[in-house]
TrEMBL record, chains A, C:
<dbReference type="GO" id="GO:0005524">
    <property type="term" value="F:ATP binding"/>
</dbReference>
<dbReference type="GO" id="GO:0005829">
    <property type="term" value="C:cytosol"/>
</dbReference>
<dbReference type="GO" id="GO:0019563">
    <property type="term" value="P:glycerol catabolic process"/>
</dbReference>
<keyword id="KW-0418">Kinase</keyword>
<dbReference type="InterPro" id="IPR050861">
    <property type="entry name" value="Dihydroxyacetone_Kinase"/>
</dbReference>
<keyword id="KW-0067">ATP-binding</keyword>
<feature type="domain" description="DhaK">
    <location>
        <begin position="7"/>
        <end position="330"/>
    </location>
</feature>
<dbReference type="Pfam" id="PF02733">
    <property type="entry name" value="Dak1"/>
</dbReference>
<dbReference type="InterPro" id="IPR004006">
    <property type="entry name" value="DhaK_dom"/>
</dbReference>
<keyword id="KW-0547">Nucleotide-binding</keyword>
<keyword id="KW-0808">Transferase</keyword>
<dbReference type="InterPro" id="IPR012736">
    <property type="entry name" value="DhaK_1"/>
</dbReference>
<protein>
    <submittedName>
        <fullName>Dihydroxyacetone kinase subunit DhaK</fullName>
        <ecNumber>2.7.1.121</ecNumber>
    </submittedName>
</protein>
<dbReference type="GO" id="GO:0047324">
    <property type="term" value="F:phosphoenolpyruvate-glycerone phosphotransferase activity"/>
</dbReference>
<dbReference type="GO" id="GO:0004371">
    <property type="term" value="F:glycerone kinase activity"/>
</dbReference>
Length: 332, 216, 332, 216
C-alpha cells in the first residue's frame, strides 16, 4: 500500500490536523472529530449537519462554511461516525431554530444518525429533522432491501439547502426543500480500479486491465456488474442512460455534476464530461449549471460518477448564492 | 462447572472476543472486501480495544452485570460507527437491561441476556432470517442455546451448542443474496460469500463458550 | 492502461470539448487549442498568457478568468504547445498594453515561447515580455544545464500577477512583480507511483511497492533519487528541508501550496499538509495563506509537491484579490 | 547513382523518416520514458504525419528544395511542440535557407543543407558536444559525411557514412550525463541510457541514405 499517511489507525486524526492548519476559517474539534465554521452565524439560522465515513473528501468537511454546512461529523475511513459525535455537533450548532441532519442512505449512517437524533431529543430538546439521500440508480430499489445509496446528490443538496438556510428559512421549509432536492436527483458511478482502505492495506477488489466496474458507490465496493473496459463515449452512455431512464429531466433546467472518485485526474474528468454533455444534449436535457472535479470521492479509486438534478429558477438562484467552503466557493 | 456466571466471566467473554477479532481481523476484513467496504475487522478491533480499555477496572470494583454490559454497549456505540457499531452496541445495551443489577447469572439469565441483545439488533436493523446478516448466525445460535438447556445441558454445554450453531449459520449465509446492509447493493453478486457480520457474531458466541470453559 | 479517454491521440481535443461544455465563462478555440475568457476586459489591461503541455490540470486552462490569465495555450500531453498557438493567443488578447508570457522552465516550453515572441514581435508589433519560472529545488542549478524546472510557483505567480494586471499595472510593473515572485518561491515534489502517458500506454517508470521517487517534476520523469517508502512525517521532511535550506523564509509571511500530482486523494493531501505545517512552524516560517489540493498535476501520478512563497503585505493583498477561474475562485 | 539529388528524393527522405519514426516510435518513447517524459515517439509521429500531409502535392508541383524544406520546418514547428519541435523545425528552416531556389542538389549542397540545419539546432538549443542530445548524433554524422566526400565517395556513400557515424554517436550518448533538455534534471541518473533525440537523429540520417539508395 502506497499512501501519504503515517499509521493506518491515525489517518483520520492526522488528516484533521492538516484541515485545521490549512483552514483558519474552520474550527476542528479533534476530540469529537467535528469540523465547524470558525465564525458561526450568531442567531436563529437553521443549522445543517452532515457527516459520514471519511475518504470521500471534500465531502463533508470541505463543505462546511457560509452558505453550506454548519458542521461535519467525520467517521473513520468508510465508517459512519458515531452518535455521540452527532449529538455534540447538534448541541453546538443549534441556535434555537433546529438542526437538519443530512444523511446518506447507508445502514450504518442511518442507524447512527437515528440514535443521535433520539439522544439529542432526549438530552437537549433540540429539534432535529433528517433527510436521507438515496440517489444512486445503480441499486435496485425495494422495500425489502437497504434501498438506494446516497451519493452525488448529497453535494448539490448541501449547497442548495445550505443557501436556503442561510437566507433564514425555517426548519420545515429547509426539510421540505431538502427532500425535494433528493427526489429530483439521480446518480450513477463507475470505477476503473479499486481503492485501498488504509486499515485493510490492499485493494478491496482486483480488477483486470480489460475490465471495469459499473454501478459503484463511494466505499470501494464492487459495482453492480463487471463489464469490459470501454472508451469514454461508451462509459458516458452507461452512466447517463440509467439516470435518464429513471427520471424525466425534460422541460426545465438541470444541474449536472461529474465527480471524480479520487484517483482520476482532471483532464480525464473533463474529457468524460464532454461525452456526457453530448448525450444530455441529445436527450433534450437542458444543462444550466455544471460542476466537474473531485467532490464526492472514494479514497484513491479511479473512476467517476455523474449526478443530474432537476432544477428550477428557485433552485438555480440558491445554487448561485454565495458559498465559502474549502471545497466549493464563489461570491465570497 | 458451576451453573452461575460471574461478572468476571463476562469480562473474560469480552476479552476472549477481543482476542478473536484481533486474530480474525484480517479474515473479517477480507469477507467485507468481497461484499462490503473492507472495514469490518478494523471496526471491531477498534471497538473491542475501546471496550477492554473501558472495563479495565470493572472486575475488581465488582459492579453488576448490567453496569458492565451497559458500559460495553455505550463504548461500542461511541467507538465503532458503521453498521456494526449501533448493532453490537444495541445488543449489549439491551443485554444490560435484561441482566440489570445481577452480579451472577444462571443459565436462564444468560439466555435471557442474549435474547434481549438479539431483539435489540432486530429492533435497530430490521433484519429477518435469510437477509444475510449477523442475525443469521445469532438467531440459530440462540435457538441452539435454548434447546440445549431444555435438553438438560449446563450453561457451558449450551454455549458450545450456540457457538456451533452460529458457525453453521455463518456458513449458511454463503449462498444467500444479501437484502440488508451494504452487501445488498451487490444484488446477485453477493452470492457465494460469507457475511462478515455473521462471521464476527459466530466469534462472539464462540468467545462465550471459551470464557465459560475457562471459568469451569 | 485504464483511463477515461477515447483514443490516445484525441485526448487533448476531447478534453477541450468538455472544458467548453462545462465552462460557459470560457471560450475555447478548438482549432488553435487556446482557452480564453469568454468576456475579456475591454481596454488597456496587460494580458497574461501561459501555456504548456497538457496533463497538469487545472494548470493552465483552469486559471483563465478574471484576476488570473487571459489565455492558456494547451500543448499535447507533456508537450509544450507550438509557437503558432502562442502567436494567435498573443494577438487575440493584446489590448495595446502588451502581453506577459508565463513560461515554465523546460527546454521545449522556453524554445517554443521564444519562437512565438520573435514571430509575434515581427508580425504584429505586440510588445511581449516573458517570465520563466524555475522554482524546483530538486534540480541542481548550473549555467551548464537546462536549469531548474518551473513547477508550483507558477500557480501562485499566475494568481498574484494576474491580480496586479487586473488592477491596471503596466507591463514593466507586471514583469517586475512576476520575476520577484519567481525569485521568492521554491518547490519540491515526490511520487509514490509513475503516471501513464496516454500515447505511451504504460507507466513511464516502474516503482516497487517499497520505494518512492524524491524530487520529481510534473512530467512523470523519475525524480532525483529513489528512496525507501516512508511515512507522511518523514516525507514532509524530505520535501520541506531542501526548500528551507535553499531560501530564507524568515521574517515575513509566506504562502504555502501543497498540490497533489493527480492520483492522490484529498484526505492524504491534508494529512501530509498537517506534517508540513508542523515543520514550517518549527522552522519559524509564518504561513499566512494555504492552498491544499490538485493545482499542478502530472496526469494520474500519486504524490505531492510543496511550494513556499515568501510574501509581503502587498503580495498577500494581491493574493486575496477576487479571482474567478475554474481552478481557483474567491470573491466573485 | 546520380550525383544530383532531386526534390522528389528529398520527399522520399522525409517519407522514409516518417516510416522510421512510426516503426521505431515505441522505442523512441521507451528511451524518453527512461530519462524524459515518454513522448518523443508520439511527438515525431505526429510531426512527420503532419509533414507528409503538408508536402503531399509537392513533388508533382515541382517546387524548389527551399520551398519544400521550409514547409517541412514550419509544419514541424507548428505540430510537434516540446523540445524536438523547435529543434527539428529550425533544422529544416535553416536547411531551406541553405538550399534556396535549387531544384536539385549536388553532394556539396546536401552537406551545406545539413550543416545549416545543425547550426540552427545549436542556435536554438545551445547544445554542445557531449551534452547528450541529438547534437551528439548529428555532429559526428555530418563530420563523416564531409570526410567521405573529401575521400572521394559519392553522395550516397557519404550519406551512408553519416548514418553509420550518427548511429555510433547515438550509442555513445549512453554513458553520458545529460546537461541539456529534461534528461538533465536526472543528473547522474541519466547515465546508462541512450538519448531519445540522438536516436531519432540517427534515424533521420539513415533515412537520407535509404532515400538516396532508392533513387540510385
Ligand atoms: N440491517 C442490518 N441488520 C443486521 N445486521 C446488519 C444490518 N446491516 C448490516 N448488518 C451487519 O453488519 C455487517 C457489516 O458491518 P461493518 O462492516 O462493520 O459496517 P458497514 O457495513 O457500515 O461498513 C454486515 O456484514 C451485516 O452482518
Ligand atoms: N538544448 C537542446 N539542444 C539539442 N537537443 C535537445 C536540447 N534539449 C533537448 N534536446 C533533444 O530533445 C530530445 C527530447 O525531445 P522530446 O521528447 O520530443 O521533447 P521534450 O523533452 O520536450 O519532451 C532529447 O532527447 C534531446 O535529444
Ligand atoms: Mg463501513
Ligand atoms: Mg464494512
Ligand atoms: Mg515532452
Ligand atoms: Mg519528451
Amino acid at each position: 500500500m502506497k499512501k501519504l499517511i503515517n499509521k493506518p489507525e491515525d489517518v483520520l486524526a492526522d488528516a484533521l490536523k492538516g484541515v485545521s492548519e490549512a483552514h483558519p476559517e474552520l474550527r476542528v474539534d479533534h476530540q469529537h472529530r467535528v469540523i465547524y465554521r470558525a465564525q458561526p452565524k450568531d442567531h436563529g439560522k437553521v443549522a445543517l449537519i452532515s457527516g459520514g465515513g471519511s475518504g470521500h473528501e471534500p465531502l463533508h468537511g470541505g463543505f462546511v462554511g457560509v452558505g453550506m454546512l454548519d458542521a461535519a461529523c467525520c467517521g473513520e475511513v468508510f465508517t459512519s461516525p458515531t452518535p455521540d459525535q452527532m449529538v455534540e455537533a447538534t448541541t453546538v450548532v443549534d441556535q434555537g431554530a433546529g438542526v437538519l441532519h443530512i444523511v446518506k442512505n447507508y445502514t450504518g449512517d442511518v442507524m447512527n444518525f437515528e440514535m443521535a437524533g433520539e439522544m439529542a431529543a432526549a438530552d437537549s430538546g433540540v429539534r432535529v429533522e433528517t433527510v436521507v439521500t438515496d440517489d444512486d440508480v445503480a441499486v435496485q430499489d425495494s422495500t425489502w432491501t437497504a434501498g438506494r445509496r446516497g451519493v452525488g446528490v448529497t453535494v448539490l443538496l448541501e449547497k442548495i439547502v445550505g443557501a436556503a438556510a442561510e437566507e433564514g428559512r425555517d426548519l420545515d421549509a429547509v426539510l421540505d426543500l431538502s427532500k425535494r432536492i433528493n427526489a429530483q436527483g439521480r446518480s450513477m458511478g463507475m470505477a476503473l480500479t479499486s481503492c485501498t482502505v488504509p486499515a485493510a492495506g490492499k485493494p478491496t477488489f482486483d480488477l483486470p486491465e480489460d475490465q471495469m466496474e459499473m454501478g459503484v458507490g463511494i466505499h470501494g465496493e464492487p459495482g453492480r456488474k463487471r463489464v469490459p473496459l470501454a472508451g469514454a463515449a461508451e462509459i458516458a452512455e452507461q452512466l447517463v442512460d440509467p439516470i435518464l431512464s429513471d427520471l424525466d429531466f425534460q422541460g426545465g433546467p438541470s444541474i449536472v455534476m461529474l465527480s471524480g472518485l479520487g484517483g482520476t485526474p482532471l483532464i480525464e474528468l473533463y474529457l468524460l464530461y464532454g461525452e456526457v454533455a453530448v448525450l444530455l444534449e441529445k436527450a433534450g436535457v437542458q444543462v444550466a449549471r455544471t460542476l466537474v472535479g473531485d467532490y464526492i470521492t472514494s479514497l484513491d479509486m479511479a473512476g467517476a460518477s455523474v449526478t443530474v438534478l432537476k432544477a428550477d429558477d428557485e433552485i438555480l438562484r440558491l445554487w448561485d448564492a454565495p458559498v465559502k467552503t474549502a471545497g466549493l466557493r464563489w461570491g465570497l | 462447572m458451576t451453573e452461575s456466571v460471574s461478572v468476571a466471566t463476562l469480562v473474560d467473554w469480552l476479552s476472549s472476543f477481543r482476542d478473536a477479532v484481533h486474530e480474525q481481523g484480517t479474515y473479517l476484513t477480507e469477507l467485507d472486501s468481497a461484499i462490503g467496504d473492507a472495514d469490518h475487522g478494523a471496526n471491531l478491533i477498534r471497538g473491542m480495544d475501546a471496550v477492554m480499555g473501558a472495563v479495565a477496572g470493572e472486575v475488581s470494583t465488582v459492579g453488576s452485570a448490567g453496569d458492565l454490559l451497559k458500559k460495553v454497549g455505550m463504548t461500542l456505540v461511541t467507538s465503532v460507527g458503521g453498521a456494526s457499531g449501533p448493532l453490537y452496541g444495541t445488543f449489549f445495551l439491551r443485554a444490560a437491561t435484561a441482566t440489570g443489577d445481577a452480579t451472577s447469572l444462571d443459565a436462564a439469565a444468560v439466555l435471557a441476556m442474549l435474547r434481549a441483545g438479539l431483539e435489540g439488533i432486530v429492533a435497530r436493523g430490521k433484519a429477518e432470517a435469510g437477509d444475510k446478516t449477523m442475525y443469521d448466525a445469532l438467531a440459530p445460535g440462540l435457538d441452539a442455546f435454548a434447546s440445549a438447556l431444555e435438553s438438560g445441558r449446563d450453561v457451558l454445554g449450551a454455549a458450545e451448542a450456540a457457538a456451533d450453531a452460529a458457525a453453521d449459520g455463518r456458513d449458511a449465509t454463503e449462498p444467500l443474496i444479501a437484502l440488508k446492509g451494504r452487501a445488498s447493493y451487490l444484488g446477485e453478486r453477493s452470492v457465494g460469500h460469507i457475511d462478515p457480520g455473521a462471521a464476527s457474531s459466530a466469534l462472539l458466541l464462540r468467545a462465550l463458550a471459551d470464557a465459560l470453559a475457562a471459568a469451569g
